[in-house]
Amino acid sequence: MLNGIIVLNKPRGVTSSDCVYKLRKLLKIKKIGHAGTLDPEVNGVLPIAVGQATKLIEKMHEKDKKYIGVGLLGFATDSYDVTGKKIAEKKIITPFSDEEIQSGMKKLVGDISQMPPIYSAVKVNGKRLYEYARENIEVQRPMRDVTVKSYNLVNTSTYDYEKQQQTFDFSVTCSKGTYVRSLVNDLGAILDVPAVMVKLTRIASSGYNITDAVTLEDISRQIDQPHFWLQPIDSFF
Length: 237
Description:
- By secondary structure, this protein is of the alpha+beta class.
- The protein has two domains: 4-63 and 206-236, Pseudouridine synthase, CATH 3.30.2350; 65-115 and 141-203, 2-Layer Sandwich (Pseudouridine synthase), CATH 3.30.2350.10.
- The protein contains six helices and 13 strands.
- It has helices at 16-27, 57-62, 98-106, 129-134, 180-191, 216-221, and strands at residues 4-10, 32-34, 43-50, 65-73, 75-77, 86-89, 110-114, 123-124, 127-128, 144-160, 165-174, 195-205, 208-209.
- The strands form three sheets. Strands 1, 2, 3, 4, 7, 10, 11, 12 and 13 form a nine-stranded mixed beta sheet that branches.
- A hairpin with a 4-residue loop joins strand 10 (144-160) and strand 11 (165-174).
- The chain is globular and about 60 Å long.
- The two termini are 21 Å apart.
- 33% of the residues are buried.
- Belongs to the pseudouridine synthase TruB family. Type 1 subfamily.
- GO terms for molecular function: RNA binding; tRNA pseudouridine(55) synthase activity.
């Protein structure tokens, strides 16, 4: 019987549930579950508990998450990322300084109330927000209390003179339940310009880093050698 934690490097384009389903079939086990859902287009650390480790899933949720990503100033979508429908556009005539961007980020650090994207799994009256969105039903989105430990500009932002848009790399450390897409959208609101998240990678979750992570292909290739891809339960503590 396998017991432990798989630190999976989830690829883009698949759901977190897809990964659990594939591993359940591959490992021929029933007791398996993930801690901290990643959106389909987000890659990176997805901790997956196996066997007796599934009892730790709630505790695994409690630890902070760390992300790196790319944001864009100049247009916005209904989903707050580039998979959504464009709903606003504004040409940036004068590029923002890196100091202005970092100053805006600083205003979103701490204990904050955040509105989740309409395309999210947050439930309202027993139904997920994305279900309302797909049915074109307007619904009041609940504000959620989250903690943002850090939100920083990484490297120098880039201005596209042709498109009159500005991209920036960022890093975020935050509590469970934080929508990084919303942090990018809210930064745009502070700077008075539409903003959208272009790319996101989770580099740490539940105390595990992306350097610890393995791919589904790694596991499939070394299926008979679990010590290569299964962390012991004690590694969580």
